Predict the 3D structure of the following.
Amino acid sequence: MTRAELYDLVWSKPMTEIARQYGIRDQHVAQACDAYDIARPRAGHWQRVEHGKSVETAALDNKNHSPETIIVIEPAPGKPGGLQRGDYGDAAKRCAA
C-alpha cells in the first residue's frame, strides 16, 4: 500500500485490528510507520474516540517520503515477520503475512 493509504489506515482503527486484518503483528505496522515517517496515534487515542472525546490527528509529513511511496510489510526470509523497504513505483503491492 502507499504511505498515504497506511497513514489513513492507522488513523482509522487501532493497529491491533490492522495487524489482524492483514495477518501480521502490530509491531510490524508500527515499524513501517516509523521507517516511513508516518505519525501514529498516541496511547489512549482510541479510548478517547470511544468515549466521544476530542482527539488530534497528526498530518502526514511528506518531507522525506512521497505519499505515493509503496510500503510492503511481510515476513523476512527465515524470520517470523519483518519490514522490507522500497519504492516500487506503480506496482500493486499489499500488506501480506
